[in-house]
Amino acid sequence: MDRSSRIKGVLAGGSDGWEVFHRSRAMIAAGVPVTELTIGEHDIRTAAPILQEMHRSALGGHTGYAAVPGTDALRDRIAKRAEERTGVPTTRDNVVVTPGGQAGLFAAFMAVCDPGDAALYIDPYYATYPGTLRAAGARAVAVEARADHGFLPRRADLEAAAGGAKALLINTPNNPTGVIYGRETLEEIAQVCQDHDLWLVSDEVYDTQIWEGAHLSPRALPGMAERTLVIGSMSKSHAMTGSRCGWIIGPEDIIADLIDLATHTNYGVPGFIQDASDYALAQGPAFEEEISAPFARRRALAQRVLSTQNVVRSVPSQGAMYLMLDIRATGLSGSEFADALLEDQHIAVMPGESFGAAAAGHVRVAMTIEDNAFEAALRDLCRFAEGRASRAA
């Protein structure tokens, strides 16, 4: 029996970008110690009070079918949070709860793209983006944000790709680069979307991890609330990655359509998880800062380590839990460097090429292990790079 063209086309015959991660996990399973700096997973677990609320809700009986759009309490909480942070009037009718941000991305593109429509995304990109667009039936079209332009998309490049497209996907703070799109960049993106009648899908799951500058949601820009779908999640802001609770914020009419889609796909998120998410969001910004603090601390630590050598250069990390490191001085590609680092040093990082052509010659390092271990791994990475650079010279 043959499979559908849709499912065969998710990866378009290419890689999913996760080979080094899978190899490192296989080594660990075989008893080989590996320092993993690959996946964006907190080294702390979900806070005990959140789990206690989840437990209380489950024991209290919220284990049956939950409201498909999300509980009124959680949707109200998400709407209030969004309005306070953006100034854009937001109610529960602008919110649908999804099984994590990834499901929200898929649903968003199911809602705005017909089969074969061009959907633009920025390269470098989170590894699942092009596959998600293709799974939704769209034609995934990359727009390169080059290293020599600070990995920021340029208006001219967006304009060149926008003709006939239906949607644009952006991510700020950005995974994998750590770059934050400032007001000028977002205003250019907004103008392109308005000039070419594009939907903007804005992945903002790292909005609580800001190290320099400020996060601006493009939904807050003039004329953008009616054409923007914002993806949010409990995963990064509250260390609830396994709970799979996210959301989409957008215009009421398309949110109503997305609720219909949820009815026919996932049929909602478990009620006890929604109650725990509502509780977590109610703890406010101070709790979110507590969750993000280790990454701010490790970023400062990394800056000190990297300042002691001149082979590995860091892309300025303004947000998110990652460092994008330029290792081109070694003479290796990002993939070659990551493979050799895993083999020689048992340190696993993600090749830049996993995130697109624009990130070639770079590796992404997740700041997701204890401080001393992180510092030691980063020093070993730099020494390894220096050795390879000497060999290349």
From TrEMBL:
Q: What is its EC number?
A: 2.6.1.1
- InterPro entries registered for this protein in UniProt: Aminotransferase_I/II_large (IPR004839), AspAT/PAT-like (IPR050596), PyrdxlP-dep_Trfase (IPR015424), PyrdxlP-dep_Trfase_major (IPR015421)
For this UniProt entry, which residues form the secretion signal? Answer: none
Protein transport is among the record's keywords = no
Q: What are the alphabetically sorted keywords of the record?
A: Aminotransferase, Pyridoxal phosphate, Transferase
Q: Which reaction does it catalyse?
A: L-aspartate + 2-oxoglutarate = oxaloacetate + L-glutamate
Q: One Pfam family of this protein, by short name?
A: Aminotran_1_2
Q: Which PANTHER family match?
A: ASPARTATE AMINOTRANSFERASE
Official protein name in the record: aspartate transaminase
Organism, per UniProt?
Sulfitobacter faviae
Lineage, highest ranks first: Bacteria, Pseudomonadati, Pseudomonadota, Alphaproteobacteria, Rhodobacterales
